[in-house]
Amino acid sequence: MKKNIIPILVIGVVVIALAILVIKPGSNTGTSSTALDEFGRCLASKGAVMYGADWCPHCQNEKKALGSGLRFVDYVECPDNPKLCIDKGIEGYPTWVLEDGTRLVGEQGIERLAQATGCPVPTAE
Length: 125
Description:
Distance between the termini: 46 Å
Number of helices: 5
Order of helices and strands: HHEHEHEEH
Structural class: alpha+beta
């Protein structure tokens, strides 16, 4: 009987571990791509620009949170545009610069970006 329980326990632990890794608190799990597209369009209409680098894990997290809406966001890859980023005073990644000059340095997440720009938080449909 014990021989049968051990494989079941191992499988159970693996399933729980995978669920924890895939479904993180604060992730946009369940948010539709349409809602994320609308959020990205809103950020763009508010003049929000994201400055970052592909190798930056916080930038990757921000891009992942924006999902399909990222394609509407004005994004500057600083290693490809060093003069522009230096001229804009970008010192860390990601840095969001809003139309009014407000700077949001570091990983912000959807809720903080919504709060700073007035864009509605995208929700599941």
